[in-house]
Amino acid sequence: MDDSDLRYTLRINRTLFAKYRYVAKYNGRSANKEIEQYIKQSVQAFEKEHGKITAEDIKQNNA
Q: Rounded to whole angstroms, how far apart are CA atoms 22 and 14?
């Protein structure tokens, strides 16, 4: 699997995003890094409950 960075467009309410940027700054992160942390936490929680997601799982899901 390719671990290079991926660009992803996110559509979100402006007021909500402004609040999110406030939270990110409070945590000493950019909005992008804050989102990355939330995604990591989400994946870790999923894997804790359902088991590790393998490259084969990902391949089957994208088929």
A: 12
Say how far apart CA 27 and CA 9 lie, in whole Å.
23
Full-model pTM: 0.79
Angle among Cα 14, 15, 17 to the nearest 5 degrees reads 65
| Both structure tokens of 21 | 């940027």
As a whole number, the mean pLDDT across the chain is 94
51 vs 44: CA distance, rounded Å: 9
- Could you write out the three-class secondary structure of 5-49? CCCCCCCCCHHHHHHHHHHHHHCCCCHHHHHHHHHHHHHHHHHHH
Closest of 7, 3, 57, 61 to residue 32, by C-alpha: 7
